[in-house]
């Protein structure tokens, strides 16, 4: 049996990983722990030369990696998963310092492992699509080449891993570009990768906001898989057009949840509360517009407030089992602060919360009181925009037709849910929702086996599942005559 220390890493120094070498840069930068406002360990600031070196190594590694039998590639990814497991507590601590209480950070590491394990079990089979006496036509899937994952700051490990696993499994080489706000875990994962994968197969580079565009413009990158805001997604797509790179865009959301009048409040309210405030409202598929039937509105709202008040908030230093984090960075803090300022400006009625805790002096980091806005108008900013912070509008509805129209009246279409004890009714409503993921009596019920992507401005293409894996491939139709 291998010694348990084979893959133990030092978590104090951070490097770019290029061609399995750890590389420093003349300039470095630091991200900030949002709960203590202390700087995280310094990371490289990559230049065009670093990008060129990484892309060239990835391109050089591609022929051998793509020719490696899939079972061997899968075995190496499984080894990598074991290596993450070996550094579980270190990754948890680092992820906590990047923005969430240790309990939530531990969940993310666990999900990262689970996600990678599931994606490595997927296989793309060749499909026979036509057969006659003369010929047989098959569809097969071939890897694209150099892939780049551009990752946001809200789930720095999980969202990158959801691209890395399928990309490598399909036979692509992969470069991970983390958000400047959360660069540390990605660099350590790639460092771990140097102990397992051949040079150039898995690399990571950190930098400033000019780094993403260097990858989207690079002629030797064949695919960009991007997760982030809709505004940046549009820039990514425009930049990829000139080289016809494949793009997958996982973008913003403004998820509606429709609660019918027949629900059991004791069962439903805790789930709704959790999936509205999960990660402090900083999940693309958090509930962001909650529609509650007018018959139960008051009772539902009272119970929701009661539940949200029990939630424990904390940061990397938390020892009391907090699950809900501060806002991750100062840029987002300012955006959410502006939304909180609208409470007074627009005269919104709060059912709970309303204050910026960081300013009240209770807590040092980017904390807000979890806030619920009681029945704002459909036109209000809190309903129209994705706040990406701990503030939720709850609105009344009376007829199915009307609530569907309101739920779909948005340019976003990531997730949505229907809550009812009548499953037929719930499904009838669910099928009319314009969103890429629709759940009944649940929200945010994500799985590595289920494709994830958006309608409308919430994205193009999918991550995860067989459809996600196909997104890392060319489609080739191969027509073979039956006689030579
Ligand atoms: P962002 O768009 O600001 O940044 C995302 C990534 O893009 C970062 O790594 C950033 O450095 C990089 N980037 C910035 N400008 C770029 C450019 N011009 N070209 C290439 N890359 C560039 O998003 P964010 O603030 O990090 O994340 C929050 C947003 O992400 C929210 O809108 C949220 O809903 C969305 N999100 C979507 C999903 C999903 O799966 N659909 C998941 C998580 C978050």
UniProtKB/TrEMBL annotation:
Single Gene Ontology MF annotation: aldehyde dehydrogenase (NAD+) activity
Occurrences of domain Aldehyde dehydrogenase (ranges): 27-477
EC number(s) stated in the UniProt entry for this protein: 1.2.1.3
Pfam families: Aldedh (PF00171)
InterPro entries per the UniProt record, alphabetical: Ald_DH/histidinol_DH, Ald_DH_C, Ald_DH_CS_GLU, Ald_DH_N, Aldehyde_DH_dom, LUC3-like
Catalytic activity: an aldehyde + NAD(+) + H2O = a carboxylate + NADH + 2 H(+)
The entry's keywords: Oxidoreductase
Keyword Oxidoreductase belongs to the record: yes
Highest taxon listed in the record's lineage: Eukaryota
Active site annotation, chain numbering: 250
Enzyme class name: oxidoreductase
UniProt similarity note: Belongs to the aldehyde dehydrogenase family.
Protein's name in the database: aldehyde dehydrogenase (NAD(+))
Organism for this UniProt entry: Sordaria macrospora (strain ATCC MYA-333 / DSM 997 / K(L3346) / K-hell)
